[in-house]
Amino acid sequence: MGVHNVMEDVVRDTLHTYKGSLHLTCDCEQCLNDICALALNELPPRYISNSKFSPYVRVEHEANHQGATTILTVIAKSAAIVSGNPRCDTYAAKHQ
Amino acid sequence: MGVHNVMEDVVRDTLHTYKGSLHLTCDCEQCLNDICALALNELPPRYISNSKFSPYVRVEHEANHQGATTILTVIAKSAAIVSGNPRCDTYAAKHQ
Fold this sequence. Notes:
Chains A, B: This is Late competence development ComFB family protein. Helix content of chain A is 62%, strand content 4%.
């Protein structure tokens, strides 16, 4: 199915940009995916069926200061939840 | 990024199941994608970061009569919008 949620790209890039300042307990791929999934379930989906519209939808969120702040707040909240209870094998192995 | 919105699968399968009774002006791939994108922007995202959870999330929506009815209602509304204003090349070529 040729649809894509542009919010996935915005969340992934925002997480990678601010990863260093989120005090993550673990930053393995599973934990980053868990943070993205939690955050995306809290944010409005922005699906497009034609990738040529992606830049317009992205700029709507990234240029809009309030939108960008909301996204970062949701990501920080999701990061705190995952950091408080990491489910990945990497963390489990380190803390056996 | 290893996350997936299970609602995409539920919407795609529901649309294919009921496609015949939605009186679509055009059922080409672009129009079906447009309907899915519109519907997914109206429905709560259900992202997972581990595909083994997909069946549990799906059954939550499909077994729940109210949930399934809401999804079908949103798809029917999106189908009516796209049918009223098809943007695909297939329809344009037929109506030049």
